[in-house]
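Structure (tokenized):
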């Protein structure tokens, strides 16, 4: 009876793997999935992403960068911009 049950379990596992598109590893052999799931580091990480758009088109202007510059200019006019070098909080304490 147990051989029939184990055969049915194998068939069910095979059908489930086919339905959910997963790999069936009934022999528990090492597959290397841990290595493939590991985060990319170093040159592999940089080769994964395409070249930046700034390098491809020199006339491209990032909208976020443009918005940041406009906001900084507005704050400078109100006197709320960043202090000049050597005029920060730490220099005022002395």
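Design, position by position:
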């Amino acid at each position: 009876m147990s051989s029939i049950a184990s055969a049915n379990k194998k068939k069910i596992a095979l059908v489930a793997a086919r339905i959910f598109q997963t790999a069936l590893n009934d022999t528990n052999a090492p597959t290397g999935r841990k290595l493939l799931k590991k985060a990319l580091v170093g040159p592999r990480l940089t080769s994964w992403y395409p070249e930046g758009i700034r390098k491809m088109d020199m006339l491209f202007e990032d909208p976020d960068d443009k918005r940041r510059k406009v906001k900084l200019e507005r704050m400078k006019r109100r006197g709320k911009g960043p202090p000049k070098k050597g005029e920060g909080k730490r220099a005022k304490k002395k």
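Reviewer-requested clarification: The helical segments are 2-20, 33-37, 43-48, 53-56, 63-77, 89-93. The mean pLDDT is 85.
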